Amino acid sequence: MFLYRAEGLTARSQARELLALAAAEVWGLASLPEISRRKGGKPFFPEHEGLQFNLSHSGEFALCALDEAPVGVDIQIVKAWRPALPRRVCSQLELDWLEAQPEFWPSFAQLWTLKESRVKESGQGLTTSIRGIQVPLPADGPVQMDGLWFRTWHGSGWAAAVCGHSAPPEKMLEKIL
């Protein structure tokens, strides 16, 4: 699994530039292949079924993952959300964990990215309650759950997560676009 991150984006299209750069470096693709979407909305390369990827962007940040098996990523700007949102999207265990964290909203962003990455890995889309999407609590390092690997990262103003079948790397490759 390879993870690429960029910041300072000024246009949404730059997220695809990050994917193109990653695909060239990892798979040697001279140009980004045509992208289609599966029934649940997950993007894929119809001409390269064996090449799995996922892409996320939020504000000035982008994240993409490349692998040989299904993978999902999410990156989010850390901000204060509507106060009622955590109760709507978190299990009681997750709420208890959040209340024990020194910084509530950055911790919530980590949980949110874990849930999004799991949904994106499956390719099913949000077909169930977000509260019912089970993920491990954020931890330092990779965590396995239900046969999948999870990992979170965070930085100044952002949180990110990956979910996949391969153990995630310790670090993301940071690129300037």
Spans with pLDDT under 50 lasting ≥5 residues?
none
The N- to C-terminal Cα distance equals 21 Å
Counting H and I runs of at least 4 residues, what is the number of helices?
A: 4
Question: Order of strands in the sheet with the most strands?
Answer: 4-5-1-10
Proportion in helices = 25-40%
**Rg, please?**
16 Å
Major sheet: size, sense and barrel closure? 4 strands, mixed
Secondary structure category: alpha+beta
Total DSSP E strands: 10
Mean pLDDT: 95
Order of helices and strands: EHEEEEEHHHEEEE
Approximate strand percentage? 25-35%
Shape: globular
Quick take:
This protein has 177 residues and is of the alpha+beta class. It has helices spanning 14-27, 85-89, 92-99, 104-122; strands at residues 2-7, 36-37, 43-44, 52-58, 61-67, 71-77, 143-145, 148-155, 158-164, 173-175.
